[in-house]
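Re: Re: token formats

Sure, here are both.
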Amino acid sequence: MARLTAIPSRLAPAGRKLGPAPGDSRALDRERAKLKPWRKWYFSARWKALRLQVLDRDSWTCRQTGVPLVGPKDAPDSPIIDHIREHKGDPALFWDPENLQAVSKAWHDSEKQRQERARHG
């Protein structure tokens, strides 16, 4: 009587993971930093000073909705400094105070993102 042998697997081993795991915001930030080196500008002292200058200029009020920007980080009424025209790494547009506006996180994460998606097709 013949002996049974194992059939070789036809499945390849799992390949490398593509990108960060869902929910891993630090890994996502590291990936973005590799693709867009200008993102480190957001962590500079120069940006922090400019951010406060824009918030004071706009009286800590959302320029799009009129909502007071008093919420803690990640709250719908927390302040976000938005680039009116996308800078795409252009330092002149990035640092131009006239290209910046104070907006609420709720507006930025909904309406502004919708506008940008529509522009990029």
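Second one below.
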Amino acid sequence: MELVFFGACGSIPSGASGNVSFLVRERGWSLLVDASGNPAQSLLRAGEDPRDLDCLVLTHVHTDHLYGLPSLVHALWLMGRKKPLTVLANPETRDRARGLLSVFGLLDREGLFPLLFLFPEGGYGLPGGGNIRLHPVRHSAPTCGFRLEGRGPSLFYTADTGPLPGDFWVGKGAEILIHEASGGAGEEEALNASAHSSARQAAEAARACGARALVLCHLPPGEAAARDLVREAEGVLGAGGALVPRPYRVYRGDDLAGAAGGRG
């Protein structure tokens, strides 16, 4: 399994990092998580042919996770994609996504490849092996994180969420946890009130589910903020226990799970 982040920032991007969106791929399939920035260009920069993308996960309706969708669909149509694209999303996100595409008349384009919007309760099988299962999390809009099982280490992504109860942890046993960290421990009251989490809370979640690597995302902009949040998470997990991903760097799942994180 490989992970390539296109951005790790929350709603406000920085000069070095865009809004959270990332690619997960294994031999036989590729999966894009959320659509921000210029998704087709980001896939190309990651060495992925956008026409081959198998699946898109849209976690929720907020702007920073959805606004690049029309650009992606338009680019794929112009590139001559014929292969169906499976879009996994909850009903609220599906409806907003379709509405956004309709604003640009994209659903009516002649020869548009099939867009298959699904919300499978029992998980979705990826081509060539692997399974992804969506799970609701705690946010200000209906939001789904997911658990992904493939040939490589198991992965749980929280998407945007407030702290999740210990008995929730379908993430328990996942070797890699990707968790939002929208601020530090000193801001937890305000963060939790808006259904977000601190880096300390992300680290506590990683410890609770037994993850071997914690990847922090949905960060405030700036390198200094990212360093501070990594240090805060390491205060729970120990040195090297968390990382902030660098855009377009390829992270191998086996390396992340084996090395128990690092600074990226």
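The domain at 2-259 is CATH 3.60.15.10 (Metallo-beta-lactamase; Chain A). The two ends are 17 Å apart (CA to CA).
- S.
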